[in-house]
Every structure is written in C-alpha cells, then in structure tokens.
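Structure ticket #2291
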Amino acid sequence: MAVGLAMDCCAISAVQGLNQGKWHPKALLMALIFGCFHMGMPIVGYFAGSLFVSFMKTYAPWIALGLLGFLGVKMIWESYHDEHDKEKTANWEIGHLLLLAIATSIDVLATGLLFVPYPEWLYPSVVTIGGITALFSIGGYMIGMLFGKLKMNMELVGGLVLIALGVKICIEGLCS
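Resolution: structure written out below.
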C-alpha cells in the first residue's frame, strides 16, 4: 500500500528533477515534506472517521484534479512565456511544495479510514507510508534529473505530467 501511495510523489519529484537537471539540496526538503504529509493525512483520516467519508468520496478527486491541473497549466504556460529566464529550474518555493504535497496526499487521507477497525496498525503503517514516500521522492527526483539532461522543453513535459496525474487521481477516485 505504501508503494502505491508514494507513486504520485515519485512522479512529482521526477518533474522537479526534470526541470532542475542536476542535484539540488532542496530535493531532500521536498522528500521530507511529501513524507510528512503522507504520514499525517492517514492520521487525520483516521480521526475524522465517518464524518467526512461522503465529502472525501465526492470532492477529493476533483480537488486533486484542480490543484494538479492548475499547476500543470501554469507550468505549460510558463514554458512558452517566461522570456526573461530560458534556463529552467525547479520551483523550490515552500508554498509550491506544500501545494504539491497537499494535492498528492488527498487520496492518502482516505487511507486513514482503513485503520478505524485496526487502530494498533495506524502508527506503524503511517511511519512506513511516510518513509517509503520520502525514499520514492528522492528516487523520482534522481530519475527526473537524469532525463533532465536531454535537450527538450522539460517544463512543458512536467506540466503535461502534472495534468495527467491529476486526471488519473480523479478517474481513480470517481471509479472507486
């Protein structure tokens, strides 16, 4: 389960690595933020319990699609309109990283509901989920970094990946 939940963050990290094209120490900060959100959201989901189940089933896929779609469209637009800086780098602003962490961990919130009948599994599971997410984020960043050395419009590619990820999350949420 932890690997499946970490894949969205792995993809986002790969986009950051594509845009940066080289190692950046803030990749560790990004992995830490993603891991912490993936640890915290199941706990929130567990305690929220049945209060928000209908809300999450109805709106979470649309929220993820909206956030990732917005960021993807913004990246695509900037790939063609950012005239003052043609040397693209990853966006390391904390607000941007937090928005990505929220968008990729909304579906993880619902995972907390799985632990309602098994409260003793909650904390060991969230530590595993957070750790795997952080590791996959670093791995995704490094894979993206390797592909970032290719000479193509990586910001455009990254924007398309974000939009595709948002659509995937939305479709999965609507089908479940």
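Closing remark: The radius of gyration is 16 Å.
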